[in-house]
Amino acid sequence: MNKIQQLKAYLTESDVDAAFVTNPDNVFYASGFKSDPHERLLGVMVFKDAEPFLICPQMEIPDAKSAGWNGDIVGHVDTEDAMQVLHRTAAERNGNVRRIAIEKSHMTVDRFEALNRLFGNPEFVGLDEKINAMRVIKDEAELQILREAAELADYAIEIGAKTLREGITEIEVMTEIELALKKRGVTHMSFDTTVLSGPKAASPHGKTGDRKIQKGDLVLFDLGVVHKGYCSDITRTLAFGEPNEEQKAVYDIVLRAELAAVNAVKPGITAAELDQASRQVIEDAGYGEYFTHRLGHGLGISVHEFPSLHGSNQMALEAGMVFTIEPGVYVPGKVGVRIEDDVAVTENGVEVLTKFPKELQIISN
Amino acid sequence: MNKIQQLKAYLTESDVDAAFVTNPDNVFYASGFKSDPHERLLGVMVFKDAEPFLICPQMEIPDAKSAGWNGDIVGHVDTEDAMQVLHRTAAERNGNVRRIAIEKSHMTVDRFEALNRLFGNPEFVGLDEKINAMRVIKDEAELQILREAAELADYAIEIGAKTLREGITEIEVMTEIELALKKRGVTHMSFDTTVLSGPKAASPHGKTGDRKIQKGDLVLFDLGVVHKGYCSDITRTLAFGEPNEEQKAVYDIVLRAELAAVNAVKPGITAAELDQASRQVIEDAGYGEYFTHRLGHGLGISVHEFPSLHGSNQMALEAGMVFTIEPGVYVPGKVGVRIEDDVAVTENGVEVLTKFPKELQIISN
């Protein structure tokens, strides 16, 4: 209940009567219970002056208990209005909810309107900033899980490298990778495993398909696993067969850009400065127009979380933050390279969690 | 652009200046472009008196075009405020957006507040009901896709039945099923494939794990595929080896309950009546307390969509509606059975899309 205590302290400091947490990732963070409720209501209500409770579909109560939540649980069934159940329970514990904190980046307008109606037009306070500030600094237990998640991502790239052969399709390679991970106990990937070959690697949002991989292709792998509720996210671009001069040149630029950012990570540097460290290398090499996305994103319970590492984010990094560094160069129809690591900010610099080699690997299976 | 024309007609009828569609499933429905934008802005803005546009991350523009959207596209990059880009573009087309329709069940409070600020406190109108009413009636092209999706779900159960053997784990069975589907071109399941064996089948929300399947188990499969953007969702419970009397009795009750609902489907009957048709059979058999969830849910682009088939939904069914019928009985720690079909309401009755046999299959691999 450590996170609940932190939320209660925040409510006291800010003189807010209650916080209603409904983003499933935040519910997991606060309660230890991970569930995707679809359209049904799942949330944790924390009070300044009363005991918290978890609200979830009736049939998930046993799972919530076995996940370790030992506070109160209120179930609801499909035939009742879950928001009314919430209000009734809240009213029983703390008659006077006048200021209520909500995740404005997650709560939907209809639930917002229901809260407004049921609680009699309370004052709403944004909760995202507080939860982001809590989640962005990983404690040692979280870092250890993220290291393990990154190690599984490294293993996945290893399997991908071993699986490459003339004529195998992207989907077949993807399937082999996921099968190998399942054997190591991985039940969920953190997003759709991406294997892009040849000209397809030059599409930063391309989809794994049935293209047959050929000698001379660069093959881009972008994948990650969910491990104990936390995500990893790695990209490696491998050469299948001998690469040509342009492929080697682009790879070298992206690698230097990636290392420039990794080596610049330390407490105090801003996200924008880090983005610029990488971007400058690519711009100086004349490929600036082909690096079309931000440098990276926070990583933890969500695969994309706070903070966003882009050129206008002036947030200074702090020890305990974990994020991706993933510059890329995409020359449409020709060559695409991205290299992505998961890194943690330490007291003195950086810990790189993903460890698969970054020098261009030439695969000759 | 057929769906866009329907939305424009609705705006004219209701005297609403613009509709802003951001639920990714609704964006797909309206534009043909399916994408998961994560925290980034993706939407279609449709005007009463101007041409619509799609707004998406810059790097997704090529994908949106190749998905067949041939209206205007406005891209945004991570360093700009996407809601400002939206407002600027809207203002250029139609200076006077005073009434705006939004999906209140999807739009987040922070985007709602941004619209309020940028458009100068417009009047907001709920759009969910209209889009639900459009999506709930499937046209012949959609029905055909749903039939194909259901056929792939049938095939998955077939593979599951063939894969059962003494000592194989639930995860291994799941992997074999998904592998076989990938070979038939399925890239996404509509939700996590569920294989539950023995006492685990008695948990309506249990998770596929490493339990070894044994002779005498009932094995519950709940799965579906995404096919051309539409979902299927099937449940079958098979007996691995000879079932005991209690297993057979519970199976028989659930099967009769399922058939009671399926056979009652026709235009005009209400969702509540359908739920009751099934529930009555289970209650009469003395197992009412063990049927702990609604009868079913709408099915289409989303695996759970409008309408919800539960005991207090008085909505009358109409031809073209597609939903699941999935009664279950779960005696904790002992026996669990669920049988689920995807059905379409026809002019005269029902078309059952999923066709895997429902008589208790005894597998003796």
From TrEMBL, chains A, B:
Limits of the Creatinase N-terminal domain: 4-137
Cofactor(s) essential for the protein: Mn(2+)
Keyword Hydrolase among UniProt keywords: yes
Annotated GO MF terms: aminopeptidase activity; metal ion binding; metalloexopeptidase activity
Pfam families named in the record: Creatinase_N, Peptidase_M24
Annotated Peptidase M24 domain residues: 145-347
PROSITE patterns: PROLINE_PEPTIDASE (PS00491)
Assigned keywords, A-Z: Aminopeptidase, Hydrolase, Manganese, Metal-binding, Protease
SUPFAM superfamilies: Creatinase/aminopeptidase, Creatinase/prolidase N-terminal domain
PANTHER family: AMINOPEPTIDASE, DIPEPTIDASE YKVY-RELATED
Similarity section: Belongs to the peptidase M24B family.
Protein name (Swiss-Prot/TrEMBL): Aminopeptidase P family protein
Organism: Planococcus glaciei
